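INPUT
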Amino acid sequence: MLSRTAENLYWLARYVERAEYLARTIDATLRVTALPAAYIGKTNEWDSALLTAGVATSFYQTYEEANERNVVDYLSFSADNPSSIRNCIEAARLNSRSVRTALTSEMWDTINSAWIELQEVWSKGTSTREELAKFLRFVQETSLRFDGSAYRTMLRNDAYWFSRLGLHLERADNTARILDVKYHVLLPEEEHVGGPLDFYQWSSILRSVSALTAYHWVYRETLKPWLVADLLILNGTLPRSLASCYDNLTRNLDQIGVAYGRQGPAQRHARGIRNRLEHSNMNDIFQHGVHEFIQEFIADNSRLGEIITKQYLI
Amino acid sequence: MAVAFDEMNIPGGDLRPAYQELARWLKETPPEALEYRRQEAELLFRRIGITFAVYGDSESTERLIPFDVIPRIMSGKEWALLEKGLKQRVKALNMFLRDIYHGREILRAEIVPDDLIFQNPVFRPEMNGQQVPHDVYVHIAGIDIIRVDANDFIVLEDNARTPSGVSYMLENREIMMRLFPDLFARHKVAPVERYPDELLSALRSVAPHSASSEPTVALLTPGVYNSAYYEHSFLADKLGIELVEGRDLVVKNNEVFMRTTEGVKRVDVIYRRVDDDFLDPLTFRPDSALGVPGLMSAYAAGNITLANAVGTGIADDKAIYSYMPEIVKFYLGEEPVLKNVQTWRCREPKDLAYVLDNLGDLVVKEVHGSGGYGMLIGPAATKATIEAFREKLKREPEGFIAQPTLALSTCPTCTATGLAPRHVDLRPFVLTGSKHTTIVPGGLTRVALKEGSLVVNSSQGGGTKDTWILDE
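OUTPUT
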């Protein structure tokens, strides 16, 4: 297939995944900040939301204060923030138009209808909490529908695999970022800083990666920070864990390698990261330093993006 | 101005045979049902994303072309005549182009004046003596036809460069069949859906000799911001070929390749929807980011077929248009089946004098204009506009031609106040491969939605209709 087509499919999936993640982050933050101050302590949750979205620097160039109104606006509706939900949807639609021939009609319809529907939201914004909640749900549903359409209707060939690469790379990045911002509340008990307040932090983290219910099924335990970290980093059964993302990335890259009859640096690099995740346990990671581990992972993950681009997309 | 030919009603109250069943159906169908389906059609167009862009319109970059749900119907007999005339015309266009870029017999016979060719900016000296695969220049032609009487079809314009609109022919039919299955059950409508297959086989048939037996065809688009982008992606999809942009292609050793995830792959035929000027920055406009450096040298080496060929603009130029009847006679020795609109060439002093005296009654067009821009419609213009145009015309008479205002035929059309006649034209698409010429029965009917308006261009308030050729 055309390199440009592969590139568009890859980015299309990334944008949709990012839009969903942003919607989840805002949703989770709204819940935490709705609690009485005694339960959440002094941290500014809106500031954390900006950090997990990776846009804190650009935000503070325009705004003085990270509060609900400013941050929701910046993450959702801002035309100036290149990774706002709005711009993700716009970019997804543009990418879809460029690769219409490689999309199934269901995928196109999902993106195009959402884009049409959201034009009104962009012009008016949301005036009530209810409207905002509806909007955030709509964005998440669009992502689910898009993902479902891809899964159910695409041929299992390179077009599908490149789209999955974009999805899992973005997902790994998102999960890693939330860990990066919140790692301090995940430190083992003797070191941790916030006391019982952190319960709400932990559930907020889980909620933003849609893993709150999963946690209870997997561990049958009350919320424990190292188990939260274990779930998000090493547990291969949770679709948004780093381990699971890398299972998928290596598999999809292998499928491409087999179809093209050639392996390359992308396959090797992805396998390297997966092996490291497979042979780690939380004890080692805490010994080594959670923060360092996550930062290395983020760098490795984005390096994989560069390698894939060089090997296939240009 | 002459009275427009009504395609449905015969003066005196009778219906023309092709419309009888439709008239019955319309009587049985309440207006609300029609309105409801009109809205449904619009929703479908939006959801499928059948949009076009209007340049210089900042308000919305994507717009829908209004779709009128009342079909335009022609009998099989009428179509047969039209088909014969179209094949003749396109054959002559191809022979003319071959001649202009080779022996130039028509110039030596002094049928077409030299300066109209050599001083014409759309003439491409690069094409002189250049062999094009299978001698086909115009693989896809869109001939704009108007009807003035029961048996009189007139060619308004030949489009021999990158004619667009065929996606509307196909999508209009698709949507009509979804919305009005009952109406189709009551008519025998000739299908149009084989157009993509016909197009692909025509394109494959003209592959260069150096191509493999399974030639690779690609569609070259200027990109998502082009006004006809939807059509480009639609056609690539229907043909099952790659939709490429200039940056996807690379020329090596005078062969053209596309960049794929598995390395480069040779391309043999390019159905290009990029204008000549932007095709190759090394030959034409150096600032073109849409083109492929080196494409023209691969073309000269005979390793790639461009459809349509480079330099076809010289055949559909409005100044050349007036010579088409003579061109048909010269190459084919036949009388043209399709007439031309009477045309005054402002470059000729006698004609110019007449035009200047009758500006209020004439339509004056720029020789190199398109899309209905830059023209004067005398009867509809104010005095001041006419006077301003007069000055323009005097300054540069060779840039203009003039024609009488034509009574385009009318078809029943949905309006705010119920069904009413509106003026229409027709663009059928003529495909020429190495062996034969084919035309899918139908075309794009454009309709001027404003009462009394004769401008059918989508950029200026025109809409479209499904065109039915009855298979009797």
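end of record. The mean pLDDT of chain B is 91.
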